[in-house]
Amino acid sequence: MISVNDFKTGLTIDVDGDLFTVIDFQHVKPGKGAAFVRSKLKNLRNGNTVERTFRAGENVSRAHIENRQMQYLYASGKEHTFMDTETFDQINLDEKQIEWELKFLQENMNMNIMSYQGEILGINLPNSVDLKVVETEPGIKGNTATGATKNAKLETGLNVQVPLFINEGDVLTIDTREGRYVSRA
C-alpha cells in the first residue's frame, strides 16, 4: 500500500481492480474542509485517461509492472509475434492491443513489453524511431516563408506532416508519443 501523498509521475497503482499510471497529480489544501489529492490517471488496460480525487492520506495498492526486453519478429494476419531476447520465448499480441504502437513497429525492433501478474498490458516504445519516407509530393521552391508542410507516408503506413524539403527515401526521426516529425535522421 502507498499513500496518495506519496504520488509521483509514472507510479503504477491498482484502484478497484484497474491498473493506472499516475500522469499528473496536485495536492490541494482548501481554506475550508479537508485536504485532497487531485490526480490524472491513465488506465493501462484500455488506455483511457481519467481524473480522480483522493482524500489526503488515503492508501491505494501499488502495482508492480514487469518490463521484459522483447524483439518484434513478424505479423501473421492480426497477430503480431514478439520474442524475449533472453529466454527466446515467443508471445503473440492481437493488433487491437497495440493499435497505436503498430504505426512505429519495424521487424527486429527491440522494445519493452509491460506485464502484470502474467497479463500482457502493452508495449513501451522508445521516445523516437527512425522511419523511411516511401511517398511524398515534391516540394515547391519558394514556398517556405510560412513554414509550410506537406504530407509524407512512411514505411510503416504512418502519415505525418513534414517540411517541404523532405523527399522520398529520406529517413526521419518520429516522436512515438505524438506521432509527429522531429527531424531528419
From TrEMBL:
It comes from the Bacteria. InterPro entries: Elong-fact-P_C, NA-bd_OB-fold, Rib_uL2_dom2, Transl_elong_fac_P/YeiP, Transl_elong_KOW-like, Transl_elong_P/YeiP_cen, Transl_elong_P/YeiP_CS, Transl_elongation_fac_P. The keyword Transcription regulation does not apply. Residues 129-184 form the Elongation factor P C-terminal domain. Its main location: cytoplasm. Pathway: Protein biosynthesis; polypeptide chain elongation. It is found in: Cytoplasm. GO terms for molecular function: translation elongation factor activity. SMART domains: EFP (SM01185), Elong-fact-P_C (SM00841). Keywords: Cytoplasm, Elongation factor, Protein biosynthesis. Residues 67-121 form the Translation elongation factor P/YeiP central domain. HAMAP family: EF_P. Involved in peptide bond synthesis. Stimulates efficient translation and peptide-bond synthesis on native or reconstituted 70S ribosomes in vitro. Probably functions indirectly by altering the affinity of the ribosome for aminoacyl-tRNA, thus increasing their reactivity as acceptors for peptidyl transferase. Belongs to the elongation factor P family. NCBIfam families: efp, PRK00529.1. This is Elongation factor P. It comes from Paenibacillus gyeongsangnamensis. The lineage of its organism: Bacteria, Bacillati, Bacillota, Bacilli, Bacillales. The gene is efp.
